[in-house]
Amino acid sequence: MNTIAAEWIKLRTLRSTWWALGIGVLLSLALTMLGATTVISRWDPGRTPDQAAMGIIVAVYVGVILGQLPFGMLGTMTISGEYASGMIDTTLVAMPSRGRVLVAKAAVLGGAATAASLLIAIPGYLFGRLVAAEFHPSLLPAEVWKVIGGGTLMIAATTLLGLALGAILRNGAVATAALVAIVLLLPFVANMLPWGEEVNSFLPTWPALQLIEQLPDIMPTWAAFTVLAGWAVVPLLIAVIVQRLLASRGGAD
Description:
The protein is mainly alpha-helical. It has one domain. Helices cover 80% and strands 0% of the residues. The chain has 11 helices and no strands. The protein has helices spanning 2-12, 15-41, 49-66, 68-85, 87-94, 98-131, 144-169, 172-190, 196-200, 205-211, 221-249. Helix 3 (49-66) packs across helix 6 (98-131). The chain starts with a helix and ends with a helix.
């Protein structure tokens, strides 16, 4: 717990944290409101209250995952900045276990990313209900929880993927480039290949888009959640192994 508390203090006292979170939240919220207004204006008058509620949630979480890259960049900066400044040496003096430090960073960043997703989703949802008032949307139909869970998990997974890449590569620019390649470029390239759908089913973007109902189902819902969770956990496990190898060599570099 002391390690988590220390990482929380470091995270909240960095200006880059608030810039990344602020940009991600405000950009996503603006896109959410714009998208919700545009989509709702095109709805058929016969839409039912449950359909209206589902449409609002889908529009909101499309906006939520559009903010994933600033959160992922926060993940890369959180640890690569320590390597660049040399603060990692001080961190490791206070807590020699590199794996524990990384897990603590992941816990703090994952919590911050989840909270940030709520700062986008809740105002976006209230705005959507206001715009769609004539359809008398119901509160939260059962099927919306898949969308909420998928969108939130995508934000957390991208943030933790950024952290893992920063820990493995220890260079903010290179880690950010790798993050953009995994989240944006690889799905685009794979989509042009004959077997691209199979490749995309193992990348984080397609399962997330399926869960927020922006793509036809390419896999069962449980599999989409599993792939997303894997992108949050597996790169971190690799990063922990890399950190332990560094420890065995007796240096921070």
